[in-house]
Recover the amino acids of this structure.
């Protein structure tokens, strides 16, 4: 009778080999990734199959194909290995608590949150805690480790790096786009806007488009939260003057339309800000690199 502990050890050692071989559909490719011989991969699979009492692979041409049992096992094997990797990562890098990240509510909702799962997936050892707020975070009080600020990049006593720039232009729901054949048609619809900041206002946009004369005839609705304004526009309640960073995903998804090409260039840009003497510089650097990569990809 086989020792139960020996059977368990064989299964654990064989599961990683099984998962890699299943991903490649080839024992030789798995051997190359694992830096072992093809014979070693084959032996590990045979041991796993023997302990389970079923075949996991069958040969098809020059490759290996999962059996029905192999297909059933694969997702559990991958999930289990991922959990083990996260546990090992936490042991190797003991958690210092969540990294506190201050961010504007609109940027958090429309740009950061839809991408955050990728950071969690690739950096399981580090937890991020977002602090959506319109107020500047107090670094001196230790309230925050990293902030994404919208400004000119000059923050005394703090280190800042440019994250991304944006532009501002009108957006509306597709159902309203047909009513906007020319800029003067804006008179017939409510204009949604946040408080004027960094030169972004309907007055400035209309002036840039050569239509400042229609402003007195337009109905403007001002909201304090840009995300709230976008929700109104998504519901077909008006036209918003919004920032490209906040609406890029909505435009790609076809949920919003851009009726006019004219765009403002705000005076401010998005910056990453942190204390140069922070005790969590390694974690901050990791998040900074990820955010910059996401910003680069979102422009493509």
């Amino acid at each position: 009778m086989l020792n139960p502990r020996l059977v368990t050890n064989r299964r654990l050692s064989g599961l990683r080999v099984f998962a890699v071989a299943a991903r490649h559909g080839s024992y030789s490719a798995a051997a190359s990734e694992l830096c072992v011989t093809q014979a070693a991969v084959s032996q590990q699979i045979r041991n796993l199959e023997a302990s389970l009492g079923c075949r996991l692979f069958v040969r098809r041409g020059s490759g290996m194909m999962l059996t029905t049992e192999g297909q059933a096992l694969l997702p559990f094997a991958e999930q289990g290995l991922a959990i083990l990797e996260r546990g090992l990562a936490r042991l190797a890098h003991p958690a210092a608590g969540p990294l506190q990240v201050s961010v504007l509510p609109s940027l958090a909702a429309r740009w950061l949150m839809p991408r955050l799962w990728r950071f969690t997936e690739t950096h399981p050892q580090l937890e991020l805690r977002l602090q959506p707020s319109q107020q500047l975070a107090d670094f001196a009080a230790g309230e925050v480790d990293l902030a994404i600020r919208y400004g000119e990049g000059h923050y005394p006593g703090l280190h800042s790096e440019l994250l991304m720039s944006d532009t501002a232009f009108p957006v509306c729901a597709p159902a309203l786009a047909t009513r906007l054949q020319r800029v003067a048609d804006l008179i017939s619809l409510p204009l949604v806007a946040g408080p004027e900041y960094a030169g972004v206002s309907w007055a400035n946009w209309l002036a840039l488009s050569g239509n400042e004369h229609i402003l007195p005839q337009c109905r403007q609705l001002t909201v304090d939260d840009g995300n709230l304004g976008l929700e109104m526009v998504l519901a077909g309640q008006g036209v918003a003057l919004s920032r490209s960073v906040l609406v890029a995903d909505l435009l790609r998804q076809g949920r919003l339309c851009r009726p006019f090409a004219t765009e403002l260039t705000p005076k401010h840009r998005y910056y990453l800000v942190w204390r140069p003497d922070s005790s969590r510089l390694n974690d901050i650097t990791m998040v900074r690199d990820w955010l910059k990569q996401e910003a680069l990809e979102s422009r493509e």
Observations:
- Residues 125 and 188 are 53 Å apart (CA to CA).
- The first strand starts at residue 57 and ends at 60.
- The chain is about 45% helix and 15% strand.
- Residues 1-7 have pLDDT under 50 and may be disordered.
